[in-house]
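Dear all,

This email documents one entry for the complex benchmark we are building for the journal club exercise. For each entry we list the sequence lines for every component of the assembly. Then comes the predicted three-dimensional structure of the complex as a token string, followed by one or two observations. Please use this as the template for your own entries, and keep the labels exactly as they appear.
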Amino acid sequence: MTDILDRLRSAVGDAHVLTADAEVAAFVVDWTGTYAGRALAVVRPGSTAEVADVVAACHEAGVAIVPQGGNTGLVGGGVPDPSGEEVVLSLGRMRSVRDVDPVAGTITVDAGVVLADLHTAAEAVDRLFPMSLGSEGSCTIGGNLATNAGGTAVLRYGMTRELVLGLEVVLPDGRVWDGLRGLRKDNTGYDLTQLFVGSEGTLGVITGAVLRLFPATPRHATAWVAVPSVDAAVSLLGLAQSRAGAHLSTFEIANRQAVDLVLAHLPGASDPISEPSDWYVLVELAGAATEDGLDDALEAILGDAVEAGLAADAAIAGSPAQRTALWALREGISEAQKVEGATLKHDVTLPIASLATWAADMVPVLEEVLPGIRPVTYGHVGDGNLHYNISAPVGGDDALLAAAPDLSRAIYDSVAAGRGSISAEHGLGRSKAVAGSSYKSGVEVDLMRALKHALDPRGLMNPGVLLP
Amino acid sequence: MTDILDRLRSAVGDAHVLTADAEVAAFVVDWTGTYAGRALAVVRPGSTAEVADVVAACHEAGVAIVPQGGNTGLVGGGVPDPSGEEVVLSLGRMRSVRDVDPVAGTITVDAGVVLADLHTAAEAVDRLFPMSLGSEGSCTIGGNLATNAGGTAVLRYGMTRELVLGLEVVLPDGRVWDGLRGLRKDNTGYDLTQLFVGSEGTLGVITGAVLRLFPATPRHATAWVAVPSVDAAVSLLGLAQSRAGAHLSTFEIANRQAVDLVLAHLPGASDPISEPSDWYVLVELAGAATEDGLDDALEAILGDAVEAGLAADAAIAGSPAQRTALWALREGISEAQKVEGATLKHDVTLPIASLATWAADMVPVLEEVLPGIRPVTYGHVGDGNLHYNISAPVGGDDALLAAAPDLSRAIYDSVAAGRGSISAEHGLGRSKAVAGSSYKSGVEVDLMRALKHALDPRGLMNPGVLLP
């Protein structure tokens, strides 16, 4: 053990190999607090060459590696197991923007660049990097790529995998694959880039990426809309899509329970619509600086929606501050739910057409498992993706934890029966590795294992994550 | 040999195992006429189960398989080698549209569906399947997926890989992977779909797919524009992008030599602009049925372009027939060049900013190798993708063939030096398998070989294609 630690210190410098409990504490527990592991060391390389050196050293010594970005994942995929034998490889010191090319529409970055800093770098050349997440102030692009992150801009711009053109990856044996190409078209072999995106650190360590930039959309029209049902929200989505076309950039849903938690726990949050509603939608149109009329278009859509019974009322942001306040109602849910107490998180996709029925049918099934549960339902209805989280019955945190396996199984069974996905955007990590495989065919699991074995035959890259 | 033929006949029926020379002729020579092989048999299964049976039989017997769609590929990837020992597996009988869901925006099809028929099926529900190729009347979606086809709609909608949500694949051992999911978001493991897209039949046989549909765009504004240079075309592209935004659906370039060939060889073709120009652009805006003003927008853009010196003149289509005529000038080039005589084809991408310089610098380099060569240059300038084809000096077909290796090497060296791609959209096939690997790093080739070995350890799927 001393040998490998010495080797790591010579790779990255003594100051960047952390072993003291106080120093490693922030790296071994995940954001949700559910996964608390231990680490042989936390290593913080400052360059691709140092990452390669660290990975080669671990490969030689047979030591497992857990790559980590901003440690904001929700499925325990970025923290070590309890053995104390794994090395956490944190990319947090690699935060250079290597190149920005607004004409080609590309930006080349280190894996450790924080998502919000990437936004800033794109804005500096009048471009947009669209990916937007609640954790964007601390998550890193390397983590976003490793987990194929989603967020609130998927409806218009797609998942992370649709935003990447090329990657630089340190392979499990320490060799570096330089796939940093910014070409839109390159048909010269297997798509290695897409193989690494979403592989959750189990096939190698992403150290750099070429990403797509889009025209800036500084104009916004934003509304918080009270809708009677999920069905109405889906119909309103169709109306907004046909009327606002490519300008529609956000279409998020939240139930009243979710909004109540935000109003209760987030300082300064206030309800923009006086009459309470079972469901709400956050809708936003975005356009170029020259594009006028977004507010008018949104008002017209919402007027027609009220007339058609798809909406009861709506609050349109009249200023940037009001826009921020409306967004806070949506972005604050996860944090507010954490304050409220124990939560059982699910991140499911279903075909959009069956979303409403599914959500309605689920409640009595879960009530039967644990009376008094509070479904806090929100998410990206435009993508068919709900964060179907269960808060404990009031005062019943322990009961929720005891019933968790049964509740999750009921939800996953129902999702699988509807040909949905049990992880829309969070990935499998440690928390869903077993479930992920159990809902797949044997052929599919075999294929995944064959790929894992081909790239990481010694099984040292993030073991126990993604594949059980 | 009799054994395997009997086994194949029992799998698909006697009528669908072709062995007579006259019957197999159309399946063993590629569209360009460059690759003429022989086959043990051409097998034409009618269902996924029959494909699986055929592949299992070949796997047991150790017989290699060449999957084939519409046999319109340009790099010899869909025809057998000269050994006479390979089985051609033609998907042409599998042409059912299995499901269309306009609300979810998905269509599920057999691999053998012809691209034009897929267009028709989408139009029937007022939707668009955007991929558009010169060969769309005969190419199949399975071939498009296996080669990650490009075409004239990439600028707006992306390559084939961006249009697919799920696949059904018969693996090299005959097992079927059912990945026919139509979800926009599904983060439950490695992206198997993207691994098979673009793998050119070397990892398995694609038998079905779930594809994305888009809102229909029946309104068009189309112009043929005389531009002074590639540089001017790139600037015009920037202007059109900032002014027409998401409506810009086509931006194609062609040099005068290319247009001359079309005018000489295609019946009914006529030059819409009287004064000859070195370069031309085909530009098209497309919108929904309710969207007026596309013609006005295009006219305004072109007016400004003429004023800024980016264009000399332009012809705007005033009717659907005129639109078809303008498109024929672009789509007819490949056919016209075939009639003219020997052609050396290249399909390269470069960063858009360096495209003009690259194209200009290339001519004297090639002239030195073979005086009198005629560069017929056209393609998808919006994607940085040129079809940089060389027609022989007049009467010099043999000289061109003799100089071909030197000419191609000069082009590929220059593309590699500019961090471009030697195959933007045609794939590697047989013709570029060696070159494809030689311009990649050893690490990248090793990665590709590891994947090939993991999925097809016996090397029976399209051997010699993609990887040498």
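Observations: Chain B has a mean pLDDT of 94. Chain B touches chain A through 76 residues (CB under 8 Å).
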